[in-house]
Amino acid sequence: MPKITGSAPVLLVADVKKSADYYCYCVGFTEPNFYGDPPSFCILHRDNYTLMLGQVDNPSRVVPHWNIRDKTWNAYFWVDDAEALYEELKSKNAIIDYELCVQPYGCKEFGIQDLDGHDIAFGEILE
């Protein structure tokens, strides 16, 4: 039976170059591959996971999920050490949306926002 071997959140952004820079310098993604002339799409990687950015023609069309449904992320990544990643991203001036905490559903997690206001969470499953 065929298996799904990966997935990638796709975020709509106002400026693909500025967004890619933020994800590289503040969140630790690498290998930004830009597509289009001028570039309007980008694929980035971190730890074998992918994030895609698509530039929109009208920035007012970028609507983070939490603007439609409260406390809803645009992307969620599970990690093996939320505390260490939190310290790393904080030291790189990532925009912290909510501080490191233990959630009732058994995850130690924190959230960041990107330049377009998308909420991205990172959670470590606690045993």
Task: Name the average pLDDT.
Answer: 96
Radius of gyration (CA) equals: 15 Å
Low-pLDDT segments, ≥5 res: none
Shape: globular
Instruction: Please report the first level of CATH classification, the CATH class.
Output: Alpha Beta
Instruction: Using the 3D structure, state the CATH architecture.
Output: Roll
Query: How many domains comprise the coordinates?
Result: 1
The number of strands is 8
Q: What fold name goes in the CATH topology slot? A: 2,3-Dihydroxybiphenyl 1,2-Dioxygenase, domain 1
The secondary-structure class comes to alpha/beta
Separation, N- and C-terminal Cα atoms: 31 Å
SSE pattern, N- to C-terminal: EHEEEEHEEE
- Can you tell me the CATH superfamily? 2,3-Dihydroxybiphenyl 1,2-Dioxygenase, domain 1
Main sheet summary: 4 strands, mixed
Q: Please indicate the percent range of residues in DSSP E strands (runs of 2 or more).
A: 35-45%
Q: Your description of this structure?
A:
- The protein is built from two helices and eight strands.
- The strands form two sheets. A four-stranded mixed sheet has the order 1-4-3-2, with helices on one face. The chain has a four-stranded mixed sheet with strand order 5-8-7-6, covered by helices on one side.
- About 25% of the residues are buried.
- With about 130 residues, it is of the alpha/beta class.
- The protein has a single domain (about 10-55, about 70-125), classed as Roll (2,3-Dihydroxybiphenyl 1,2-Dioxygenase, domain 1).
